[in-house]
Structure formats: C-alpha cells, structure tokens
Fold this sequence. Notes:
heterodimer, A: alpha/beta, Glutaredoxin, 5 domains, five-stranded mixed β-sheet, four-stranded mixed β-sheet, 23 helices, B: 2 domains, elongated
Amino acid sequence: MTEPIYRADVLVCGGTGCVSSGSLKVMEVLRAELERVGLSQEVRVVETGCRGFCAQGPIMVIYPDGIFYCQVKPEDVPVIVEETLLKGRIVQRLVYSEPESHTNVPLYENIPFYEKQQRVTLRNCGIIDPERIEEYIARGGYEALAKALTTMTPEQVIEEVKASGLRGRGGAGFLTGLKWEFTAKAPGDVKYVVCNADEGDPGAFMDRSILEGDPHSVIEGMIICGYAVGAHEGYIYCRAEYPLAIKRLKLAIQQAEEYGLLGENILGTDFSFRLKIKEGAGAFVCGEETALIASIEGRRGEPRPRPPFPAVQGLWGKPTNNNNVKSYANIAQIIANGAEWFAKIGTPRSPGTAIFALTGKVRHTGLVEVPMGITLREIIFDVGGGILNNKRFKAVQTGGPLGGCLPESGLDLKVDFDSLRQAGAVMGSGGMIVVDEDTCMVEFSKYFLTFATAESCGKCVPCRVGGRRMLELLTKITNGEGTLEDIAKIEEIATGMENGSLCALGQLTPGPIRSALRYFREEFEAHVTEHRCPAKQCTALIQYVIDPNKCTGCGRCRRACPVQVIAGDRRMIHVINQAGCIKCGTCYEVCPFDAVVKVSGETIPVPEAPIPVGTFKPVETQA
Amino acid sequence: MPLQEVVEVNESVDLAPLDKVLDEYASERGAVIPVLQRAQEIYGYLPKEVLKHIAKRMNVPVSQVYGVATFYAQFSMMPKGRHTVEICDGTACHVRGAAQIIKVLEQELGIKAGETTPDRRVTLRVVFCLGSCALAPVAVLDGQIVGRLVPDKAARLVRELE
Ligand SMILES: Cc1cc2nc3c(=O)[nH]c(=O)nc-3n(C[C@H](O)[C@H](O)[C@H](O)COP(=O)(O)O)c2cc1C
Ligand code: SF4
Ligand code: SF4
Ligand code: FES
C-alpha cells in the first residue's frame, strides 16, 4: 500500500524528557482517537526526538500551521482532535503562556525560548521521525556523503573541515580537521573511527538528544570521516544508561545498510565502511579517549599517558580518530554547505554553535543551541527565562565535574572555548547548571569532588589520593569543623593534582573548587570562622525550626515528616525534636504558613513541647 | 569505587543460556564487557560461577574477568532485590534536592545506597543523570521514571512496593 497523502502532521516529542512526562501515552491515545473519528488517513502522528523545551513537556507541534502545545495530557487529546484537527481552532489552554506577561504564544516560531537559538547541529531534532531514514534523506541527509565520495578526495574533505574551523565538541576544543589529518597521515593500513558518546557529565544530555533525535547525522559524519582518514570500521561508544539512544542507533545503522550507505561499495564507489555500537558500563573515566579505547577492547577503562595519541596508536594499536557526537553531527552540513558557511556562524576562533543542557534553577530547563559568542546572560535570562521562583541568580557552572563556576559578574562574558577557560570555567561538553541563592558553593564543589573522586580509576597517586584528601578537608568544612589552614591545604593539593595527574580527570578535578574559591571565598570562610552556612544548605550547620508565632497547628508537617520527629496536635504549636531530625526539609516544603524556618548560626526561641497556639511567650522558654 | 565482594549465594545457576551468549560472541574481539552485560541481564547479577565460566570459555584469567566486573559501576556481584529504586543524583537533580531524597530513602529502608534490603525487597542505587533533568529530582522505580519528587512522596512510593 502506498502512503496516504496527509493534510496535517502531529509531531509528538518522544525524547527522554517528554517520555518521562508521559508523551508515549499521549501518542497512543492520539492514534486511537484519530482512528475513532476517521482521521487516521488524513493526519499523521510522528514521534520525534527532543525539541529541547523539556520543562514544558510533553510537547506537541501541529503542522502545517506550527501550533505548539505544551504539557499535553492524554485527557487533552480528544479536545485537540475535535478543535484543532477537525475545526482548525487553537486550544488556548494548551498553548505556551509567557510567564511574565501571561500572553499566549500559539505558534512554535514565536516562542521566546527558541528566538535566540540557532539550530544547526540540532536542525533535525524534533522535526523528523528518527526511526525513518527517509525523513533524514528528505531534509538533505546523505547528500554530503555523496558529495564527498564522488566529487572530493579524502585530502579535500580534510581541507574543508580544517577550513571550517570546527573545534571538537567533547570539551577540549581541539581542531577537528587537524585531528583527522593526523590520523590520515599516520602510517598503517588498518585505521578506525570512534565516536565518543559516553556523555559522562552528570547533568548533561546533549549527545543523547542527538542520538535519539537525529542518529543519521552522526552516522553520516562518521562515514565521511572514515573516507577522509582511510578507515573502514567505526565504533560508537555509547553510555549504557541510554537505552533509547542505543535502540535508535541500531535501527539507523540497519536502515543505512539497507540503503547501501554503510557496508561494501557505498553509493557504488569502492569505499566500504561498517559501524558497530559498543555499550559502556558506567564509568565516567571511560569518556577519556584512551580509557574509552581500553574499554572497547574489553579491558578496565584506565587511561594511559599520551603521546602516543590515538591518531597514531589507538584502538587495537591502530591509528584511530576519536570525536564527540556533536563534532560528527556538524560534518555533513559543513561538507554540504561549505566551510565558509560554517565559519560565519559564531566567533572567528570558535565557529559554529554551542549546545547546552540548561538545567538547575532556571525557568526553562532543556536543550538549547546558540551561536558561539552569545553572552551567558542571554542564555540564562532570555532563552532560559531567568531564575525560578524569582530567586536571585548566584552562579552558573559549566563543564560539569571537571569544569568551573562563574558568578554574576561573569554573566556578560561571551561564550566560547577560550573566554570560558580564561574565566576559570570551561566549555566542557555542554552541561550548564544554574544555581540560585539557596545553593551553598562549598557543598556544590563538594558534590562535584565527590563525583570525580569516586570515578578516579586509581591508576595514579595524585588523583587517587589527592582527591580523597581534598574531599576529607572539604567535608570537615561543610561539617563546620574546618580551619583556615584547611582551605590553604586544599589549594596546595589542587596544585599537586593539576601538575601531577596522568589524565585530564585528575588534572581537572580541582576545577570546581578552584573557581568556587576564586569567586566565593567568603562563603568558605563563613563555614570555617563562623560555623555558618550562608546559603543554609550544609545540613550539619543548619536547623529546621518551627516559628511558634506563625504555626497554626495544622499538622501538615507532622504528617509529612518521614522520620516522625515533629510533635504536636490540633491547634498546638508544633515542635521539632532536633535530635531525631534528618534535615530532609520536607516540613519546610509543606508548611502552608511558612512557619518552618531554616536557621544557621542563629537561634530562635521555641517551646520545649507543644503548647496551644497563641500561648507562646519567648521569655519563659529561651531556646 | 568500593571493592565488591563476590558473595556466595546458595542458588544453582543454569549455565545453558550463558553458553548461547558465549557462542554468539565467540569470534568477536574485546567481548568481555558485552558478555558480562548479557550475563547480568540473564541472572540479574553476576554470580561467582558465571564469572568463572566466562573466564574459562573466553580463555582469559578469572582475575581479568573479575577486574573488569569490579571496574564498571554497572556490574553487580550481589543478587538484586525484587524492586530496584534508582535515585538520580546528577547535577540538576542534586541542586533540586536529590541528597535529601536519598537520605530519606536510606532511612526508610534501613540500608545505604548501593545495598539491598536483607529481605531482598528493594535495591537502592544512585545514578547520574537520566536525561530528564527538566523533571528534577527524578527517580526510576523498576524502570519507570518518576519526576518532581519530594522526600515524603519518595518514601511513600518505596513503602508501597510489595
Ligand atoms: C574524564 C574525562 C571524561 C571525558 N568524557 C567525555 C565524554 O563524555 N564525551 C566526549 O566526547 N569527550 C569526553 N572527554 C574528552 C575526550 O577525551 C576527547 O577529548 C574527546 O572525545 C575528543 O573529541 P572532540 O575532539 O570531538 O572534542 C573526556 C575527557 C576526560 C578526561
Ligand atoms: S588522573 Fe585519576 S582517573 Fe586519570 S589516570 Fe590518574 S587516577 Fe585515573
Ligand atoms: S509548622 Fe506549619 S505545617 Fe507544621 S503544624 Fe505548624 S502551620 Fe502546620
Ligand atoms: S540530573 Fe537527574 S535527570 Fe539529569
């Protein structure tokens, strides 16, 4: 049967973010409903990859008009079918509403979240059905491959990539074309192409969204790379925690094989290339390229000193080109549109776009793609919509556990590889976490340090031991037991790790603490000299206390407390037994009267045991 | 990563399905990790006999198989509980209160993250970023993602597991 000609497409996001807010159910109900009203031959349901606006998921876009619905629930489907698909009317209550002005924005193209974005690498994500190669091809997919294989020599391909100025998107920002040239020039008949899809930064999901939303763009980039460097085999090393990405990649590889785009004699030329997927097994250090190679070979993922670089001696000892997912995903467009086109986007030294997983305390968390050179302020306040709950911006962390943070004074920095590094943060592979006044920078640095030390492979001493010692000192500080000498010692160890570690994991582990000390030193000192956590987050230094003048005795907190340490009764002032409190903050969250307060370095008078509401006199019961 | 003990569990293991997997990977280079992954899918964890059998069939020392199995966080040498609760402590979830949720669940279950309750009811794990940061803090209960958690809701969900 031939495909019917559809008059409308309903795109429902099937990316991980929207799936976890229930988009699969929405799709199921939608298909059934279309069937029921007899529209299934007129309206097509397309499951797309991520559109980036995860906070508003599940997301649905209806073409040809481009009507954008957010937070769609299965119950909303019959209304959408009835109103929009049958009668052509917009359902206002499902439309995105500007939080500031409360105006409704019904069309995708007008949503402020997308206005400052420039979709280059993600141009297909959320637009096509990633499980159908035909849709990728319809958007110009595999044209670049055909162009490269039939009209360009491998050297010309490398020249084009070099001329584009593309820098690796895996973190270090090394020139991709130059790396390809090293691999191409390395002696040897057998060479490999590897794609690093380990995405270890715990708070980032750019690579995953590309693999889930547009897997062919990565595959096409890898085949072109294989042609350029003279490799006939490639591996995609993907995090095992990404089952959907792996499933879509497998399907995409299979479809590309069926179309003769992978395998022997690609597009009738004498070039052959095969691709395999390797699943990671949960080790952050395997994102480091030499460790990644060890892991593909089936060994423990321990890094080894470089040189020799993988370009000379990589997988199974052969020259190997390793790039990040996003680096490969840019290649096809560079070949198709030319290096000059690409070089015009972004800044001269960092051409192209940057993709960030914008998360934390911003209003619009999600995936954003912006031209290099945009300021952090524009990303956080224009695209991200500012800080949640009208709190104050405090810091933004980029580069994940091996990155660094910037304070408010850094907001006007223009984002690119070099500017961020100079300011003590790094581009990293794209995690961007925004924190507000409620985040303690000491605790925040400790979080990253805990992560990085747990992931140290243990091969070299500065990283294995240095990280541990630094964590012990930092823990002392968050417990309120630290001294000023401890801060000095942390800085000393940091220098040792930076200079003495074998791989970048150890060298960069001190990054978050370094930058926090640079910009928020007084916060560290408050913990040490005043035993106070200014952000009221370090549990050893805070108490949850019920303000006897505000408590109405409603009992909400008592019922919600997971360890049942709140005493009280109807119309009685409730009291928290500090000895048993685990400081989970539940009471603080649930109290409808804001009677639960967090204190650090101060005390407020409370009764020893519950007394009737209104009878509290502070003098009698000094705390 | 803390060193994992290979525990003795008095359960006999049927090696036949494992042999099938080993046949499949017989000619592939560097297949120890995928074989261990498949073995864990079959048995739920990696019992001692399984590690030994893999070593024998793949012609590598047991120490090497053990070395690989202990290096990667994905592999467990302890039987899992009937339910698995994974709490995300990725950065986005962390800044939105994941630490508190972990604390409450450890309290509720009487175990530390990474452990299984003695009655094998629940295994509690901490994972890093599930790509659902927009719904932070997030947990996975037996494969189902639950978002926008607060401590008492998390405790309630875990209490309700059979
Ligand atoms: C501890 C550690 C973790 C890393 N994790 C990743 C990762 O998850 N993804 C990635 O592409 N690169 C990662 N890298 C960087 C890689 O070693 C390598 O530089 C990169 O994959 C090169 O690709 P590119 O040139 O396209 O940027 C990591 C490096 C270190 C030291
Ligand atoms: S720096 Fe750390 S992770 Fe890197 S090799 Fe040394 S111990 Fe391993
Ligand atoms: S502290 Fe708040 S939640 Fe608890 S009893 Fe008083 S008013 Fe109710
Ligand atoms: S940090 Fe928890 S889902 Fe991303």
